[in-house]
Design a protein that fits this description.
The chain has 243 residues and is mostly helical. The protein has a domain of 168 residues: hpI Integrase, Chain A (Orthogonal Bundle). Helix content is 40%, strand content 9%. Helix 8 crosses helix 9. The radius of gyration is 22 Å and the shape is globular.
């Protein structure tokens, strides 16, 4: 809200004292990060529930952490098979960034880019270009992913995969970053992969998922009191992970 008000003032849309909202206090815990990410078995169910074209898009998001718009505009020439990277020419921050790929990611993008000219988009889908009439069937063709096309597809996919609560396409980006954080990848590396200007936003959302020196030390050093009976019952993991 503060950013919106500042932008409105800069554009001359707001009149009044320059410090009109300077004394306004932030709402309690309103900026606490809430990160939803998928577990590995949920990822498998989701990918399997997607139709082929959308499965490629979801796979690309899970292997790169890229936003929907970045993937939709990605060209074959943005993939460098030698360096094992994809380039986002213009990210949300307005600067290009280079996303390092795993071996799995490199194999995936090699398949997508095979035989395509450098300017060709990597992601397409089947779409209706002419509606059916009483005398003629609908005409379909390969089309690009539009600005909001992901909403219906992700909604149908998570419903088919029985993932609750519902997720958005952006949660795939959170899943990518959370997976790196939980494996001890430095915040600076995660920030670079996501295109964050510095580590502040990255730390705010993902630092709590990183392996904790304090927690590891306590678990290794405290020992066992012997006051809790052992059980063979396997607890069910909740579907929601929020920080």
């Amino acid at each position: 809200m503060k950013a919106a008000l500042n932008h409105a003032r800069a554009e001359g849309k707001v009149t009044g004292p320059a410090d009109a909202w300077a004394a306004v206090k932030p709402f309690r815990e309103a900026d606490a990060p809430k990160v939803r990410y998928l577990l590995d078995e949920e990822i498998t169910r989701l990918v399997n529930a997607c139709p082929a074209d959308f499965r490629d898009l979801v796979t690309g998001a899970l292997l790169t952490g890229c936003r929907y718009g970045e993937l939709a505009g990605m060209k074959a020439g943005d993939f460098d098979p030698q360096a094992g990277k994809v380039t986002i020419e213009r990210s949300k921050a307005g600067k290009p960034r280079h996303v390092a790929l795993t071996d799995e990611g490199r194999t995936f993008f090699e398949r997508l880019a095979a035989g395509r000219a450098g300017a060709a988009l990597l992601f397409h889908r089947d779409g209706t270009v002419k509606q059916a009439t009483r005398v003629a069937p609908a005409v379909t063709a390969r089309v690009v992913w539009g600005k909001s096309d992901q909403f219906r597809f992700i909604r149908e996919a998570y419903a088919a995969a029985k993932i609750t609560p519902a997720i958005s396409f952006h949660e795939l980006r959170h899943t990518y970053a959370a997976r790196l954080a939980m494996r001890g990848v430095p915040m600076g590396v995660i920030a670079a992969q996501l295109g964050h200007a510095d580590t502040r936003m990255t730390e705010r959302h993902y630092a709590h998922l990183s392996p904790s020196y304090v927690a590891d030390t306590v678990r290794q050093s405290f020992g066992t009191l012997g006051i809790v009976a052992e059980t063979k019952v396997q607890p069910l993991l909740p579907n929601v992970r929020a920080g």
